């Protein structure tokens, strides 16, 4: 005669728990990677829509890109590229960029905005994409007038499909020069370059960029993230002629 068993033994419970733990260890990284990929896809979609807005703006202004930053004489506030593009996006981006602090405004925000290599964040998630100052030009009192530059036209770019328009940024500036020498501590305004350097690994060890012809693409960041890039997105074309894209067509 067999005795009826009404439950599990301790050994059986431990085996079940061990199996669940093993499955969790296997699946959780997969789920995290899938989540990261979905956020990367949303970011890429944002940039593609911003690219369309750039192309529409250029068509309305003799194929010239907007300024990335402009401070009118006698005023204390900057007007930025987001505001110039807003008529084509209808997101009600404020004319004073500081008024966008803490706000997540439409497609101007990367889903992984808070992810940076050095762990820093900014109070402006709507500035999580930074414009290329060599193409859009920054007319800013915080930047020396010798570095203001000239807003470029589409026709003036030698290789528009490889010139950066928008890059990842931690949001402390609305532009950067892509200057990653000495960990971004160089250029006409180092903090703006550092903001780019620390953000260029936010999507699976790389980041999405908008290029001069309006298309968006993911590029791998250097290892470590604050190293000088020579194969992905480089600061100057002459210094990295074999790079896939660059900020400055010198």
Q: What features would you describe in this structure?
A:
Strand 1 and strand 2 form a beta hairpin. This protein has one domain. By secondary structure, the chain is α/β, with parallel strands linked by helices. It starts with 9 loop residues before the first helix and ends with a strand. It is elongated, with a radius of gyration of 23 Å. The longest helix has 51 residues, at 10-60. The chain is 27% helix and 14% strand. It contains 4 helices and 10 strands, in the order αββαβαβββαββββ. The strands form 3 sheets. It has a 5-stranded mixed β-sheet with strand order 6-3-5-7-8, with helices on both faces. A 3-stranded mixed β-sheet has the order 2-1-4.
Number of domains: 1
Low-confidence stretches: none
- Report the major sheet: 5 strands, mixed
- The share of residues in helices is 25-40%
Number of strands: 10
Task: Provide the residue-averaged pLDDT.
Answer: 90
| Radius of gyration (Å) | 23 Å
Q: Numbering strands along the chain, what is their spatial order in the largest sheet? A: 6-3-5-7-8
Strand portion, in percent?
Answer: 5-15%
SSE string, helices as H and strands as E: HEEHEHEEEHEEEE
Structural class: alpha/beta
Terminal-residue CA separation: 91 Å
Shape: elongated
